[in-house]
């Protein structure tokens, strides 16, 4: 019997979580279990944040369905150590995020943060996101590409993917292209890209009360990354599959730095 824990960063009532629930049920099969532990409210952009300095409420909404007043990483912790009482699931799925988590978005994403937390606890984990754009705006279901192709790509990863058992084990980031399901060209294994000449910024706003606030403003999401990298293949109609690790060490500089500082 397969037991899957699912979460997201868009919140317990997000439509992408409905899509992920269907995908997880197909993966788990009729004898498997799908447990949902998701944020009570939207937690987009919180990254790998955990609620270290204040307590949380974990509310049971239905059988195998819980809402946590915390971040996506909190939800994984609550799911594993409270809801499942320490019995680790066979797989953690996070998403399906509304919007891409390609390129530098990886570093801000709560969707990725949940998968990262699962990987740190030795649990196989996959984050899933749906790139949005003009071609998804008029679809009855903007998550159509993820809904149609999600189960197949996850099964392929579970069957043929690289699942390491080292301390900073591999987990996966999947992004579905901004198009209808029938327009998806296939999938490509791609590295994390970087959108040049665009970034997050600040948008000042003055409220009717006269108080001044600052909004975080995102940059253009359809700026291509280098050829072959995640956002570039997404914009070309392909599902990107990117293996990630929590280890942030710049391994390629270690020997040179040691020699310079000797």
Mind explaining what this structure looks like?
The chain is of the alpha/beta class and 262 residues long. It has one domain: Stationary-phase Survival Protein Sure Homolog, Chain: A. 27% of the residues lie in helices and 24% in strands. The protein has 7 helices and 11 strands. The strands form 2 sheets. The chain has a 9-stranded mixed sheet, sandwiched between helices. A two-stranded antiparallel ribbon has the order 9-10. Strand 5 (91-98), helix 3 (110-120) and strand 6 (125-130) form a beta-alpha-beta unit. The longest helix has 17 residues, at 144-160. It is globular. 43% of the residues are buried.
Brief characterization of the structure:
Its EC number is 3.1.3.5. This protein is α/β, with parallel strands linked by helices.
Chain-wise SSE layout:
Layout: E1 3-7, H1 15-28, E2 33-39, E3 58-62, E4 65-68, H2 72-83, E5 91-98, H3 110-120, E6 125-130, H4 134-137, H5 144-160, E7 171-176, E8 186-189, E9 201-206, E10 212-217, H6 230-235, E11 238-244, H7 254-261
Parallel strand pairs: 1-2, 1-5, 2-4, 5-6, 6-7, 8-11
Antiparallel strand pairs: 3-4, 7-11, 9-10
């Amino acid at each position: 019997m397969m037991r899957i824990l699912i979460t997201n960063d868009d919140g317990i009532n997000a439509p992408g979580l409905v899509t992920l629930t269907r995908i997880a049920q197909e993966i788990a099969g009729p004898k498997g279990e799908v447990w949902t532990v998701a944020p009570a409210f939207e937690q987009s952009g919180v990254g790998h944040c955990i609620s270290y300095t204040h307590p949380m409420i974990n509310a049971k909404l239905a059988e195998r369905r819980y809402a946590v007043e915390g971040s996506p990483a909190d939800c994984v912790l609550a799911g594993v150590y409270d809801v499942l009482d320490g019995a680790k699931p066979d797989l953690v799925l996070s998403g399906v995020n509304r919007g891409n988590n390609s390129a530098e978005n990886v570093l801000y994403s709560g969707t990725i943060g949940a998968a990262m937390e699962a990987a740190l606890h030795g649990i196989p984990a996959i984050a899933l996101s749906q790139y949005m754009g003009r071609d998804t705006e008029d679809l009855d279901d903007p998550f159509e590409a993820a809904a149609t192709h999600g189960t197949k790509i996850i099964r392929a990863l579970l069957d043929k993917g690289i699942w390491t058992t080292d301390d900073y084990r591999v987990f996966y980031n999947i992004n579905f292209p901004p198009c209808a399901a029938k327009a998806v060209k296939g999938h490509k294994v791609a590295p994390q890209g970087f959108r040049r000449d665009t970034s997050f910024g600040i948008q000042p706003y003055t409220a009717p009360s006269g108080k001044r606030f600052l909004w975080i403003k995102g940059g253009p999401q359809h700026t291509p990354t280098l050829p072959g990298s995640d956002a570039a293949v997404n914009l070309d109609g392909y599902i990107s599959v990117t293996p990630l690790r929590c280890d942030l060490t710049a391994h390629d500089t270690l020997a040179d730095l040691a020699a310079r500082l000797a």
